[in-house]
UniProtKB/TrEMBL annotation:
Name used for this protein in its record: Sec-independent protein translocase protein TatB
Subcellular location: Cell membrane; Membrane
Composition-biased stretches (Low complexity): 111-121
Entry similarity comment: Belongs to the TatB family.
Compositional bias of kind Basic and acidic residues: 99-110, 122-146
Location of region: Disordered: 99-146
Pfam family, one: TatA_B_E
Superkingdom of origin: Bacteria
Function in brief: Part of the twin-arginine translocation (Tat) system that transports large folded proteins containing a characteristic twin-arginine motif in their signal peptide across membranes. Together with TatC, TatB is part of a receptor directly interacting with Tat signal peptides. TatB may form an oligomeric binding site that transiently accommodates folded Tat precursor proteins before their translocation.
Amino acid sequence: MFNDIGPLELVTLIVLAVLVFGPDKLPKVIQDVTRTIRKIREFSESAKNDIREELGPEFKDFEFEDLNPKTFIRKQLDNEDLGLKEIRNGFDLKKEMAEVTDAVHSRDSDTSSSSSSGSSDGRIDMTKKPELPDRDDRPPFDMDAT
């Protein structure tokens, strides 16, 4: 419950509790707090048991921790019946990206070999400015259409 509290925070809480409640009332406050925490845990366990009974025998191994999305996904990915490990292992993102890159470079080299504007290795020269089409190639501008 208090796994992330360090020693300095614990000492600070103790000193603060002594200052707020005083040394003579502190034991009674601690007993009341522990009793309240115990009652809350008992209530929580009885509610969980009631829910399990209402769900029936098909949910006898149901755990409430499975409602956490991370835990649910982790358990589903570890399930061998679904075959998700084979799908996950069969998908290689680097390989797919390399194939796409090769396909793009081969298409660029095909178009660049037919025109003289490309380089010989299929790469695009980013230092050149793009060639603008001639003004005669554009369709006429229609003022009424805009």
